[in-house]
Amino acid sequence: MTVQNQATQLNTEDLLARIAELETRVEALEQAPAQDIEDRLAMVVFSGDLDKALAAFIIATGAAAMGLEVSMFFTFWGLSVVRKGRSFEGKNAIQKAFGALLPAGGDTLHLSKMDFFGAGAALMRKIMRENDVTSLDELVALAQDLGVRMVACEMSRELLGIRDDELLDGLELGGVATFIGDASRSKITLFI
User: Fold this and answer.
1) Which residues belong to the signal peptide in this entry (predicted)?
2) What's the rounded Cα separation, in Å, for the pair 109 and 114?
């Protein structure tokens, strides 16, 4: 046997040993369940646009109906989706301006595209009613009935001057740690 054949023989034996070791490791990984991952969906709702809010709640209620534990984290403009009204009492001028300019609830949200100063959103709501499509307010109520966890971002709420009594009943207040805690255990994480 030449020196070159001996080197090739050693490399082949070494490679076969490595392949066997890798096969053992892959088999062990395939047998072990994913650790700490649960049947959960965690979602950030950043947008206050009607079409995006509809998509968020359709996904959330669908996932909850399929047995997933769902949490929605409303931050910045997404807080508009879970506002139930406006209040100006006790706010400074900037907070009053934000309160006046931000939509307050499903009936006041605009479309992200083709809104045309509210005409697009009004047309969308009309078409939804004519086709018996569930409204955003009904989807929110359905999500609450299905036990979807809805968390309002405390920092965004304070920055925008939104008070607790302007938010839907039953919402939790929380920070990024609340969302990260939900997301780290979830199979699915979405940003809308």
Assistant:
1) none
2) 13
Phi then psi dihedrals of residue 25, to 5 deg: -65, -40
Burial code (b: 16+ CB inside 10 Å, e: under 16) for 39-73 equals ebbbbbbbbbbbbbbbebbbbbbebbeeebbbbbb
Question: Taking the model in full, what pTM does it have?
Answer: 0.78
At 26-40, the pLDDT tens digits run 888 777 766 677 899
Residues of the chain short of pLDDT 70, as ranges, are: 1-10, 33-35
**Interval 71-110: pLDDT, tens:** 999 999 999 999 998 888 888 888 888 888 888 888 889 9
How far apart are the C-alpha atoms of 39 and 3, rounded to whole Å?
Answer: 58
Instruction: Name 160's Cβ contacts closer than 8 Å, sequence gap at least 6.
Output: 76, 79, 95, 98, 99, 102
Say which CATH architecture domain 37-191 belongs to. Answer: 3-Layer(aba) Sandwich (3.40)
